[in-house]
Amino acid sequence: MKALVIDDSRVMRKIVGGILVDAGFEVVEAENGQDALDRMAEHDDIGLCCIDWNMPIMTGFEFVVEVRKHAEWRDVTLMMVTTEGEQDQIVRALAAGAHEYVIKPFTPEVILDKLQFLGLVEIEETV
Amino acid sequence: MTLTADTFDFVATLVRQKSAIQLERGKEYLVESRLAPLARSAGAVDVDAFVRGVRGDITKHDLVVEALTTNETSWFRDINPFTVLRTTVVPDMVGKGRRELKIWSAACSSGQEAYSIAMIIADNFPGIRTQITATDLAENMLAKGRSGEYSQLEINRGLPAPMLVKHFERTGPTFRINQQIRNSVTFRKNNLLDQPPMGGPFDIVFLRNVLIYFDVATKRDVLKRVRGAMAPDGYLFLGAAETTIGVDEAWERIQVGNSSVYKPREGK
Ligand SMILES: C[S@@+](CC[C@H](N)C(=O)[O-])C[C@H]1O[C@@H](n2cnc3c(N)ncnc32)[C@H](O)[C@@H]1O
User: Cys staple from A53: which of A82, B89, B182, B212, with CB 3.0 to 4.6 Å?
Assistant: First the structure.
């Protein structure tokens, strides 16, 4: 499955992308919401987006709202990955159609736990 | 490494006697790194000196044992057991007419397991009352569980965002689980080497990721006591690396999907 990593920080894209590659995803990157919409249109097999909130041109939140207007992207899993951790922001993102929410900073296990829960990677039981 | 063999042996023996946790030779680094903070705050020059001081002071022994426990846990750890709970175990109990479930989260660490169970039942079986008894040896973990407050990093570990939004409130830098869920869990100190806690007989027991630290004889004893504290038609969940097979044959293993759950065999 392809995953789209959307963040204006190159370092952050590498970190998130690295975790996803290790989990077996093919990773595509975007620098902001608008860039991400273009990538979505280009690749028709993106199944997961990891989305920063604050980005220039188009925010992650606006991106989520936009994606949810498109029926053909109905099955794409949207996961916010952001420093924004206020409860009402989490509520807003979920209400707009995001499935999951990871607050930065995080460890690789955090992302993997979430992907398992979402049924996107095989469940590996821990000891 | 400053640890002498004598210090290590004293700590390993103390920990084995008090918790059954096995610390084999070669785990010196673990003892050193876990006790170093205690040594520092006690003002001892190093771990050896700290342990020498503790030897004659039994009031400090529990602290040492606590420091050597591994408290790693997460919300809905491994997911599968919680899916089995929701799709198979609770429906079976409810189908048999249970309106109230008594559940034991044994070796609960900081409470994520107990609260995960409480959230699943509250969300999926609104008419069912739950009384969850959560026990551990480590007082500091019980205190944390009771507070119901978790850091952002702890929240990130396995808690689905919809549940965070539904059952938690942000209080400054931490998130606190709401009172309704907190009220369904009672935290009690209990050593698995002693008699089971009050609150039974239990319909469902989670005994996960703790038997791995024990030798076979202790595993067998613990499983036997747990069985004695359960309803005859109850269910037991173990950790992914744990099983009753080859340890205590009084259990029947039931495979559900790619996970398993155990039931006491009749007449045992
Ligand atoms: C790795 S945690 C498991 C937490 C949780 N059950 C889970 O699966 O995520 C193991 C816990 O067992 C506790 N423990 C170890 N020996 C014990 C004993 N003899 N009696 C009670 N608790 C014990 C430790 O304090 C620790 O919190």
Answer: A82
